[in-house]
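User: quick one, fold this
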Amino acid sequence: MDESYQDYINRVARLTLPTACSMQLQTIQHSPKFVEGKPVSFPGYSAITPPMEEDNLNQDFYRQVETIQQQLSQQLETDLFIPLPASSFHFTLADLIWDESYRQAIAANAEFDRVLQQEVAASFQQYQESLSDKKPLTWQLWGVMARPRAIMACLVPKDRESYESVIQLRRYLYQNSGLVGLGIEQQYDITAHITLGYFDKIPPSLNRDRLCIVLSQINDRLLESELPVFTVKEAQLRKFDNMVDYHRQPEWATVKFGV
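Assistant:
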C-alpha cells in the first residue's frame, strides 16, 4: 500500500508548499484528543522510535524541532495551538490500533494485549533477521505542515535505503496474519512526522492567510540551512494512554538498526 520512494519524496515536498498550506488550513478543526488543553484518554499501540526523553542520539535534532514549536506557539493566536511536551516527541513507524477500536478489542478479548505483544515480537524478529545492511536509518526534517487537527514537522528519508527499510518493517507488521486476525490493518500511507501540537479552539475570525505565512516562513528558513538529521537506531512497541504518554515494558519487542 505504501508508495515508492520517489512518490513519497514528491508528495511530502508538496505538503510544505504555500499552496498546499492554504488548502490544508481551510479544513482545520478542534482535536478531540484534548479538552481544555489537557489530553484525554486515547489508548492504543504503535511501533515508534524512543520518545525524546529516552533518545540520547537525537537530542540536537529534537532541540531544533522544539525551537520550531516555540516559534509557532509565540506567533499563533491564543488558544489555537496546544503544544505537546517535547519529552513525548517521536517518529511513528507504524500505527497499530487506537481509541474505540482498541477499547472494543480488549472488551471482546481478554487476551488481546498479550497476543498483540506476541505477534509484534514475531514480526520484529522476522524483520530483524531479514536485515542484511544493519546501518542506522537517516531521515531529515523537511518542514512543517498543517493537518486537519494538528501541526507536524515532516520528515524525508536521506536515502532510498532508509525509506525502504521502514516500509519493509511496516509490511512485516501489516501482513502478519496474527495481527490481521486481531483486526489490525494498514489504513493509510506513511507520512513521517513529529507532531508538534494539536488545534484547540478555532475562532471564527481566524486569519488563515497569516497562519499560512507563519508556516511558510519557518519552511523557508529551514530550506536555507542544513536540514537537521534524525537517526533511527531502534523501533519499539509502545502502548499509549493518550497523545502524551507512551510507555513499554522491558520485555516488549524492539528492532535494532546499526547493530
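User: anything notable?
Assistant: The first strand starts at residue 34 and ends at 35.
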